[in-house]
What does this fold into?
Amino acid sequence: MKKDNTPPEILAQIRDRKNELGEELLILTHHYQRSSIVDLGDFKGDSFDLSRKAANSKASRIVFCGVHFMAESARILCAERQTVQIPDEEAGCWMSDMADHVMVQRAWNELVAVVPTDKVMPVTYMNSDAVIKAFCGQAGGIVCTSSNAGKAFAWGFAQREKIFFFPDQHLGQNTANQMGIAPDEIVIWDPAKPLGGNAPQALEQARVILWKGYCLVHTRFTIAQMESMRKKNPGAQIVVHPECTQEVVNLADAVGSTSFIVDYVTKAAPGSRIIIGTEINLVQRLADDHPEKTVLPLYESFCPNMYKISPGKLLQAIEQPDRNKVAVPTDIQAGAVLALERMLAL
Ligand code: 13P
Ligand code: SF4
It folds into this structure.
């Protein structure tokens, strides 16, 4: 794991500026942020907690310490008089880049040429651009996060026969498995191939169509790592994020969003041994926060995008209210808010 060498005077300056600004400023931090950032924040959470917090906040300025799609969702959900800043505009997400709106629109057009539109519900993972969320909102669909994907799928199935889920194949697969959907009713949509690489008949029969996207941080976890860690740590529990492959999820003792993982460790009895398959900054912080338990990484998997947010850049954002303001065009905002609010209402 990278060593955080932030000079103490930067941390002190951020604290001073926070005290001066009081309730005017809200600093939101995702669980994968480095500990110095989480310590400086007002609220930490998973992507769902943070979107809800942004939607309900009264602060005139929100500084979002996470990746771009998260800050963008906060921008969409809060009021016009509020501003949302991201300390580094380059903090993107590899997975969300795997489905741009041109690709998704093309896929949708191909799909609805085979299966009528009123039979397919588009569901996008929070890890996607605002344009994709807007597309879903306008097509009657919804956004979900890793903490409510099951509810979003159930919501979709209550209205339409099939779900088209993007961009994370694995979250979609794990959610469909948990709902008891048969393997032959799940197909993968490869955006590089016509009809996603499927025969029209397979799409007619499918209940779940999964975009072939993935998170590099979570697909690094393997069954071999799990077996080796279990051998070295008899009696340990393994808990993983649902962006891991279904083989890993099926072998784990528990699966859930980053907030679920935090709760799991917090509620475990002293002396427990827990092995975690998610981003290393969260695992390391849980280990530091719970010395009475043994918390180990399944493997040290690091998200460089999340790490782009540093205390120095946070200080710049606080000191310069116009720096890196997140903006979403009005027409996109209008569609995206529909899909996000449907999620918040689940
Ligand atoms: P959470 O929804 O669990 O916060 O996860 C977001 C994410 O990007 C995981 O890689
Ligand atoms: Fe994106 Fe994966 Fe990083 Fe999450 S961990 S922000 S999905 S690249």
